[in-house]
Write a structure and sequence with these properties.
homoheptamer; alpha+beta; Glutamine Phosphoribosylpyrophosphate, subunit 1, domain 1; 5-stranded antiparallel beta sheet; 21% strand; disordered N terminus
Chain lengths: 279, 279, 279, 279, 279, 279, 279
């Protein structure tokens, strides 16, 4: 979250100290946040009620519902993608492994869209699964129409599927982010990051979700253009887990550029790598 | 419900004591809840009216109507599912057995969707029954199209049926949770938990509804991977009833992995087990 | 209506006494109700305006429009159903017999849906009549498709007809309750209670409407599993009239398990029974 | 309008007297009404704005728009129906006979729907005429489908036409009441009262509109089961005019049970009767 | 506009005098209107905001949007119709004759719908022209279907066209009034007044618009059942102009009962008559 | 903009002077406007929020959105039309000639609809261009259906295209004005002014837009019925430019009655005339 | 942003100084902005809430949502177009080059619509990509229908595609600006600027987005009618980068008038030019 620094008059500072000593708050930051919140509520042109709930522009050109949809994504776990000459790696953090649940959840895992394309989402579950199913339909359609489901064409169609939800007022936007990875029709490994709130990028490596910013830091630290697939798996696991959680807390899948095949990384492989990453 | 603990200044504490002595409230928790309620009402950016009633994102990425739909489920009875190598058990708590009503209510019971699949819901009755009927249609369709109604494919289709209700603004979300259990096309017992508010999981055992959290505790205590079907029935009854209510207060059905058949557990069986569980 | 009891401080009590002596209110209950009403109006998160008017969830998972629809039913007369081995009895209280009106009102009476099925509604008249006509269409459809209009299948279809009105925001819910009784395709007498607000039950005996709770008490007192049809008629009349109104104030119809025929009970029969019930 | 009686403290009474002496109001009732109005405006849960304008349930199960539609009917003139063994009489009060207008107004009169069925409406003119035209279409349809336009079937179809307007939120309810009279397919004279707000009754005699309550009193006083058609015409004129207005202020039509023919009563006949009724 | 008379206390009167002397208002009526306006704004149950803007019933059964549509008509010029045994006259006041505009405006004049039917509207221009075009389509349709476009049938169809706009909430009502005159299929001259707000009448003579009430007074003064067509033209001109404006300020057209032909009255004729009317 | 003059009491005047001396405002008009604005905000029945934003009637029969659409037109440049026996002239002021833009803007110029019809719009650009394209379609349709695109028929169809936007609530009205000029099917030069807010007129000469009122004054001063086409061009340029801007600041096109051809006036011609008009 | 200068009374000035000295604000501009914001919030007729969020006219004829959409465009990077006799240059600023992203982003780059037409957008990504795809469809359609995709016809169709989003209330406007450049069917280089908020122009050179105004200044300084294509590329790079960022921060493409071919400018070329522009 962004930080705000502010110089205040001494009188104000003394008043804050008094409130803290009296136990009304733990520290000045807490009081300041409350003050800002209250102040904003008195300025109608900055935060009028209407913007929050409707998919419309605010005076400074923002669409609040899209920004809030991004927050919905931040509430989910972290997903990671790494692309290297030998293929693509997709990873998904499992925040809590419940002993009564089946892992991976067949509706919230890394999906094989097609033998050479994988997809993983974070955010609202049914929204995400809905897009995955839409992507599957698109793959079938592309195979029929063009004899081949090229990953870039697929992502294009997904962008066009998502767009209306960022503009219509009779539905809320989709509260998800997706990472799509695979081998394209020219045999190149490709990796895309797609947001329900409307953004789309092609990446060498990417991460999004609850721990997204920390994970991106890890990726920036470890990414090299000539990573081996093995190394890319290790980097993805590190970015997804961030701390020394257990190997069970991460799902990993690869699409190999040579075989053009989607493969889930086994627990044994993950355990071996995990011991190297968090010795 | 979540608990909040808070350190308060001595002056505030004395004021609370005075109000209680004067009879304005029974205890400090009561006063504190009232204070929180009132305080929230003064902060417009946290709880603006619009979010409550419309299916839209709040600034922190939540969709309040979906969370409220979860509350609707909590107002119903408890439903339970247990999956073991020998099959699946579904159970449903009947909170009150009215002598003038027929039990089980043919519209609010454990339904046989298909010879090898059962379904049970809790929450709003017509919402739940509507999804059950939708599931029946899907079963018919799958049988026609694929000669077989695989339980995982069925649950997929139900997720896609539920999703739009979590996103559209011209209807409220569905106020139900469903447990679907059965034998899949590879002869494996499977168990799924599906929420109208949008979540879906595959489970070894699960419970949801009014007494859901206590029931989950019982399941966690008693679940083992190698449970016999008989034992699974016992565990399900215990989780559904929680306390020593009568055997009439629970409905139980099983889908046996061998026979692949849905069967309602008789009152005699339930009585026998009940005597073992609550001796 | 629910009763609330509350302990108040002595000072408050004296203030209430003073207000009553001054003539501002008749008693403390009146003052307390006014105080509660006013207090609730100051708590935005409990009773925000939006919930009342829109078919949406409240924070505690309620759909107020559905609860208000139940109130609409309570404003109508009372309807009663009794099921016994020899058949089913349906009864309807006529609150006021207007000398200028034709009784029974052909649009607000006990309807013969089919030779072996009867239906009666209370609440908003056109809503109720609309569902009755829908039910007639369903009967015709079932006869065509399945050669037989089984009462349980019919009630299923009616539930599915009612459900969307409990969920859509562009119409209000249906403000009615219906009792459907008849002989099913296996020759068993069956009785169902169906609410526009969304509930559905199968019953041995049931009552709903203005005097519903008192009527249910009478049914609970008088119902036995082996009632003769004659006795069931008497019990239904007693539950519908509650007090010694005239025999003209009740409509009664039976569906006999043997003949499988719908029959309206004549005024002579009603008078004879009435003299026995209210001697 | 309902009367409210209230005991007030002496101090309040003196204050009211002072205000009246000072000229602020003409009498205490006026002041009390103002006080009630103001008081109600401070109680949000009783009269929230939303109910008035939307077709939704209020907390006590009322649909205000339907009640207001009834008020729209009360703003029109009075319409009357009388049914007797020899036939049916329909009458319509013309409140003001404008010398520049053609009387009867061809769009606001007693309509012949069919040789043996007549209809008359009061309330919003285009709403009423719209239903009359709908009824004509239904008559044509019934003739085609069933070779005969039975009056009860016709009224049924009109009820089903009116119902959605009492439930949908994208249109207002119909602001009319209609009286339909005629000879049914079994040669019986029949009379129905149908309200846009949703009620429907079969009557021996009925009246609705501006002077409806007074007219009903006249009908109750004069109705007998064995009225001759001639007598029924007189009773209908008396109920429609109430006071000694001119014979031109009433339209009358009969449907004779023998001839099964709709006939408008001539001015000469009306004048002759009028001299008997208001001697 | 309606007048209100009110007795006020002397103290109030003195206060009003003081305000006028101080220059705050020109007279007491001005102050009183302001006071009423302000007072009404404090009574929520009488004038809630919702009624104004939505096509819904107010508590006393009025539909404000329809009443406001009537005001829109009053903002336009005046239109007049006179019917006599020899034919029908339609007239339209041109409030201002702009030297740069073509008169008559081809979109806002007296239209020939059919050789024997004329129509003229006042109020919102595109609304009016839209209905005129709709009427032309109806004429074509009637000619096709019934070989003849009878004026009464045509007006019926126009009423049915207008009705939904008085009831739907997704459009505003039509802001126009129309006078339709012509010779019917039985060779009788007929004259109809039709309002977008929903009323329809058949008239001997009628006027509506800005100067409508004064014009009606002139018509009432001059109308006789046996007017010659020539005299009817004179009466229509007088009612439309009211004061001695120029002959150019009125458009006049006749439909002669003998020739059954629509004819625009020439400027020479108008000038000749004008000199007789305003000597 | 309209001017308001008002007599105020001396006390008020002195207070205003004091405020100006103190620097709170530049002059009394500024203070008065602020006072009026504030005063209006306190009178709910005159300017309720709803009217502004919705296409509905206000209590005095106005549709504010239509009046605001007129303001949108006033924000654009000025367009002018002049009709004379030898043909029609259309002119368009270019407020600012940007050196980086192509002039005339191919989407905001004088368009040739058809060899003998021209059209020019001012106001919102895409709205205007949309109607121009609609007009082109109409021309094609008319040519197909009637072998000829008569200008009056074309304008009729454009009026009917515009009308729904003045009445529907799900779109805003069109924010444009259009001048259509050409030679009709009887070889007469014709000129029409059409507003998105709903008005339509036939004119000898007309102007609308930012400088509309001043331009109309120039037209009224210079128009004669027997203008030569050459003179009409001069008058149109003068009315469009008003002051001695450069010849590049005006676009001019003519439709000659003899040739029936649309022709853009060249810069050389404009320069020559400009030197005569602004010597 | 626009600047406002204001004269204030000395007393006010002293008060502002005191507030700054006390530390409540950094300078007078800050205080003044806060004051203006607060003042505006008190004037209901100028900034009522409704306008912001709905696509409707404000009293002065503005459509705020369209103006806010322009702000959304200003939040993106800068795009530039330059047209010269030898061809067209399109450029796009990349504000930040992320080492983990692929540059250019395949969904946010300069697109080849057709061999002789290029397009580039700034603003909301999915909105922009959606229009690009729409444009591609139009190109395919034009090729099919007219054997050729002329750039002006294409832009026309794009304007018509964009218009409804500026008028409908059920979607927000498109938050993008597009520059379309290419060679038309007469072999002329053409350049168009198209805004989602509704404007469209043909240009010699143009720039829009975050640094739009500064970029336009650079274009005005450097544009000459006889620029060589090489020089145009240099000018476009300078306008897009504005300051001495790296050559990687700009994408450039040309459509050569001779070859009629779209070509992306290579990094080497950009580097060479960049050294000349920012020596």
């Amino acid at each position: 979250m962004p930080e705000v620094r502010v110089i205040i008059p001494e009188d104000l500072d003394r008043a804050l100290d008094a409130l803290i000593r009296a136990g009304f708050a733990g520290n000045k930051a807490e009081l300041t946040r409350a003050a800002i919140t209250h102040f904003l509520s008195t300025i109608p042109t900055q935060l009028p009620k209407g913007y929050d709930v409707e998919t419309a522009f605010s005076p400074d050109g923002r669409v609040f519902q899209l920004e809030y949809a991004v927050e919905a994504v931040r509430r989910g776990g972290t997903i990671v993608g790494v692309c290297c000459p030998e293929g693509v790696v997709l990873a998904k953090e499992l925040r809590k492994v419940d002993p009564l649940e089946i892992t991976p959840n067949p509706f919230f895992k890394i999906f094989e869209l097609h033998e050479s394309i994988g997809i993983v989402y974070c955010g609202l579950q049914t929204d995400g699964y809905n897009i995955v199913e839409e992507a599957k339909k698109q793959v079938e359609l592309l195979k029929k129409e063009e004899d081949e489901a090229d990953i870039e064409t697929l992502v294009k169609n997904m962008v066009l599927f998502i767009q209306p939800f960022t503009q219509r007022k009779d539905v809320r936007p989709l509260g998800v982010a997706l990472i799509v990875g695979g081998i394209d029709s020219k045999n190149n490994p490709r990796l895309f990051l797609l947001e329900g709130a409307g953004g789309v990028k092609e990446n060498k490596a990417c991460a999004i979700g609850l721990g997204g910013e920390e994970s991106i830091g890890i990726l920036k630290g470890g990414y090299k253009a000539d990573l081996r697939l093995e190394e890319a798996i290790g980097l993805a696991i590190k970015a997804a887990l961030r701390e020394a959680k257990k190997p069970e807390n991460v799902l990993v899948a690869t699409i190999d550029a040579k075989t053009k095949a989607f493969r889930e990384v086994t627990l044994e492989e993950k355990e071996r790598m995990w011991r190297q990453i968090f010795p």
